[in-house]
Amino acid sequence: MYDACIIGGGASGLTAAIALKKSGGDPSVIILEKKHEPARKLLATGNGKCNLSNENCPGYRETLSFFQTLGLLTREDEAGRFYPYTEDASDVVEALLRRNKSEGVEVRCDAHVSAVTHDAGGFHVTYGTKSSLHTIDCRKLLIAGGGKAGPAFGTTGDSYKLAESLGHSVTRLAPALTAVETYDDMKAFAGIRAKARVILKYKGEEVFEEAGEVQFTKYGISGICVFDLSRFLILPEGKNLKGGFDDYEILVDFFPKGGDIENFLRQRAHMKDLAGENILDSLVRQPIGRAIYEKSGGDVKAMAELLRGWPLRPKGLKGWDFAQITRGGVPLAQVDEETMESKIVKGLYFAGEVLDYDGPCGGFNLQNAWETGIRAGRGMSR
Ligand SMILES: Cc1cc2nc3c(=O)[nH]c(=O)nc-3n(C[C@H](O)[C@H](O)[C@H](O)COP(=O)(O)OP(=O)(O)OC[C@H]3O[C@@H](n4cnc5c(N)ncnc54)[C@H](O)[C@@H]3O)c2cc1C
């Protein structure tokens, strides 16, 4: 009988184990991790640099001091994003694993949890393969198995099934922080990157906008500002993927800092070598310039409008393999947010992406994992 069992050796699970051990009483703690090694996803975060928090997260100071206690030096970039000082995600993983080891946490890998039951004697956790199943018993159980995004890292949505099997509900799940596929034929623009602003409209109303680098691909658009936009591209209730996003429109503004573009184009129209279809040269990359020129029919006012809002029709989102996070999960209303304990099953806790939280790019999602992990660890110690 373990005092605590943690399902998932990722960001939130490893953090929770440390917080629980630090709270005293020397509890016996085991982490069951499905993959051959823990924290595989963490190694891939922030393009291998691990953007671990952001100064715009209300709880970022606690995260920084948590990592300070692990001996991990961090640095902040000009946009307020925090990284390990070496900008090497493996240093974050090492720091977490080192402390888990020195605290005596048992980390068991290749341990795929497939079922959990609960009775007066505590929780009974079944893991392993069909031919070799094992069960361990524990007094407290933390589900920290992540979401559905990036299944190659072990996150295939098991946490939601386990939560449901214990009486919790799960809100609608969707891939988020992902690229957008468009109906528009984008092949001519594939490979182009533009400093621009993306605007999302739903039924004509603006619901999101962000400036950044837009990457054009053969299927649509990508880039951090597009990832952030994807969190707001929500399939309306009752609609399916086919045609489900038809009430949305994306506009790409190639002059996010504004200015009188129309007047500027009129002046260029008087320059002999820029008149006609060359008028947009050096303002946008040539394939985009050609497309805008054609669409405008050579009309300067129409061209100026298209430069400030080139319309694209979203068809769908790049799926789980591409997405960084999951939208939806176990409703926060079903947990005590101070201790992360379930309001439905005593002794059951949740941390990380399994919860119905999704944040923008920039360290917000890892911040959520550390923060809920720390609270769950402390909560389990009570
Ligand atoms: C490519 C990529 C880059 C990212 N970059 C950033 C970034 O720079 N900054 C940021 O804030 N966020 C980033 N994210 C998001 C962030 O990684 C996640 O939100 C965060 O890791 C979630 O933490 P977690 O503890 O809930 O789950 P995870 O860290 O995903 O860990 C869950 C663990 O549970 C294990 N598991 C799953 N099911 C079972 C089971 N049945 N039995 C046993 N173990 C199981 C998994 O193998 C996994 O190791 C990125 C995501 C991806 C995919």
Automatic annotation (TrEMBL):
Keywords: FAD, Flavoprotein. The keyword Metal-binding does not apply. It holds the Pfam family HI0933_like_1st. SUPFAM superfamilies: FAD/NAD(P)-binding domain, HI0933 insert domain-like. Residues 185-319 form the RsdA/BaiN/AoA(So)-like insert domain. It comes from Aminicella lysinilytica. Residues 3-378 form the RsdA/BaiN/AoA(So)-like Rossmann fold-like domain. The keyword Flavoprotein applies. This is Aminoacetone oxidase family FAD-binding enzyme. InterPro entries: BaiN-like (IPR004792), BaiN-like_dom_sf (IPR023166), FAD/NAD-bd_sf (IPR036188), RsdA/BaiN/AoA(So)-like_dom (IPR055178), RsdA/BaiN/AoA(So)_Rossmann (IPR057661). Its cofactor is FAD.
